[in-house]
Amino acid sequence: MHQAPFNTENPQTLMPVLRAIGLLLIVLFQPCLGRQHVRYRIYARLDRSDSILTGTEQINFWNNSQDTIRALCFFGLNKHQIKDISLAVKNFDQPIKLKRPLLPDDSINIMLKFTSFCKRSRDYMFSNWYPRLVLCQNELPTAPVQFADYEVELTVPEDMVVATTGTLINRNKELKWMKYPPDFRPWSRDSVKTLRFRARDVADFAWVASPDFVLTQVSAQGTVINILTRNRNRFMWFRLPEQASEIVGRFNKCFGKYPFDQLTVIDARGIVPSDTSFPGLVMTCQKPVPFTRLLESRLARQIAMQWFSCFVVPNQVHSWLSIGPAVYAEIRYMEKRHGQGNLLELPFKPGILSGFGDRFYYQALYYLAATNEALTPLDSLPPVYAGRGPILSETKYAQAGLFFLMLEKIIGPDKLKYALRLYLKKTHGKAPSPTDFIDACSHVTGEDLTGFFDQWLRTKGTCDYAVTEVKRKGKDIEISIRRKGEIIMPVDVELTFTDGETKRLDWKSRKRTGILKLTTPKVLKRLTLDPDRKLLEPDRWNNHWPRKVEIKPFIALPSFDAYQLFYGPYAWFDSYHGFQLGAWTQGREFLDAGPLHGRHMWTLSETYSTKIKDWHTGASYQTPLSFISDRLRISFLGDYSLMAAGVRLNLVQELGRAFQKPGGTIDLGYRLFDLKDTVGRNPRAWDSARTAEIRLKLSHSYETRYFNGGQNFYLGRGLPQLGGHSDYNYWKASVEQVHAVRLSRRLNIILRGFGGAIWGQIPNQSQFYLSGGLVPNSAEPVSWGYQGMSSGQEHWHYDADANLRGWAGQYLHRRFAYGLNIHLKILPFLLPFFDIGNVGDTIDSQFWDARMDAGVRLKLGWLYADFPLWRCHNGKSEFSPNWSLGLKLTGLAGF
């Protein structure tokens, strides 16, 4: 795959110029130069053997404004490309001054040559591949001439299927040829063909070429839709033509007729990194996932971009003008066609997943960003331009789309559709600003909405109102309301009385807190803020009095309205407990784990183990300390049985920006563990012991273009007085380093280093183990037993400690340890490994006489299987095949 930018004969020296001009185009104020008329005639040839695109270009420019134009700019232009003597050139890093200023209603013709250097590939994607004209004012570039007419001739290898922004002129024979599978197409290896395309009044001209595409054509209300899929994927995409036709038909009714001559939808996985749209082209990277409608939802969003990102072209600073209506259109389309739970397409009722649709997905993303302090003002550069991660790019889509859903509820769906159509009509052919859309909404509603938009576009915070208290004094009811967010909005307050009567009041205070008073003899049963859900809030748990509670069996999707209570039976089996039968109950607001910041999440359980004939009681609780920060969390875990009992208390602070690297955590904790009986546990690894420890764990992660990974530092202090009746007094420290190095696109090397030391008395189960961890950890939480095949030291594996997998089954553990694990990632599922390290009770020559092993890891998602084949110690090498399985949910560097 290659996505080629325009390059000249010396691209390296010109890249800073390109970036500088591009940035100026994005952020500079754009003066009103009027709409210009530009025509491009481009003749280009793709040489696949040398991976070079060469071309000539003729630009006809008519000045239709009332301004005199004295200079022009181009993307990536240098003196070797100029073929027109009417241009006076002194410094090619600056705008080019015209010898003769271009007066109103005057024109100029420019001839250029250009070259793009491509990576050798089977698939090619070209955007910004030709010199584009940029207007200048006061000798500074302002904005590219957004809309132009194109006549393009492309000479390509004969086996290439080409899709472009424009309409193919010599198409009858070519279209018929494109519909054949690649193996049945007549073509000659060294032959080329020339295809001619024409596009009128478009903002850009992009094209894609690949020998693997197969064409399917459908139509929707007069619009021709071309579907280009890889031949090997045709059966996976068999519903795409019908879906694209349905989407275009529905959007035609909402936003006006499809704005281009035709629509081409391309299976672009491996060609572009993410979904993208150009005029007349939709490139989707979403793979069809069985039993879901993910592809259809993403297709709807990208087709909507044809209206809001291609028919009009907002400045990137105002990206909400394109992504907001597109996400709104996607949500509305999916709900009208498939209902609320529209992302799942199961052969049975979804049960606990009912309601899992586009709206829930975007609401969860918005909540995620709000609770991780990751929201940016709506009218700002999207995260991709601000150096943010891909998750935050999706949260920007969620923020903009949900804003338009709120706007729909405030002004009404019909008025919003009318405002969108008016906005499209008035801004076609220019780069619209927020004022254009605000004016359209104000015109439709007959109200000045500037103040409303100003808050939502420029405020970083959220809109969040809460009922804090309700008091009754005789016939007087006092309702305390607090504004927790930065955005101020009028709020409807609905009161429901015990006799069934309801009453609505308005809350319009601009203060942070206030009291709403009401005099009535009736008894208040329920109160709700914003009962019609007009406002965009991260959650609505504090909108109700009394707090809204849902009780459901088993489990359900997290609710943004209610505190949820669940209950159900419990059944599990492992070699230590045998069958575990019992019951559990859980309460929570949303979910609380990692970046998911719910609140007051607790679980109680009671189970009976048939093998050890023992009852087990468990309890846990965790919540963010939101009065300090949503990223500071406290957690408690306790369990008790006749065999063992334990308590764990942790305070965890997340560091860095959410969803971005570098990042890290500080984890300060206390742990008490009392193992009363070692029945069912391997005696080589387990002692009857009571330990109490204060521990500190520091974690750090990073990612760059060629490296990613992180470090973990652990320090523990065991003291008898911390837990009572403990005989163990010790210090324990360890350091873990994991780093992945990208050697090529397909080849990575992953290095893990470990070192640990213990001073003082400590039981066997707390020492460092040679072949891997003894017990589960946060990344690998599943346990099957403590002896035999299911033990962490035999055929169930945890990546921890020295991690020399060839020595599994030996139960070697000591107070000092070191290890180096090397993985070569050849394929996503195939990782040959080499381990070297040792354990010892003293640091002497025997300790440094390292043990070694080698083998291969097979990885499938979270599951992995290690197959050590060889090991060596004291100069003795042996073929020692073994195996172990593991399940890893998270980890540094994907290791």
Automatic annotation (TrEMBL):
Entries under Pfam families matching the protein: Peptidase_M1 (PF01433)
GO molecular function, one term: zinc ion binding
Ranges where the Peptidase M1 membrane alanine aminopeptidase domain occurs: 303-456
Gene3D superfamilies associated with the record: membrane protein fhac: a member of the omp85/tpsb transporter family, Neutral Protease Domain 2
Superkingdom of the source species: Bacteria
Positions of transmembrane segments: none
Name of this chain's protein: Peptidase M1 membrane alanine aminopeptidase domain-containing protein
Protein source organism: candidate division WOR-3 bacterium JGI_Cruoil_03_51_56
Lineage of source species: Bacteria, Bacteria division WOR-3
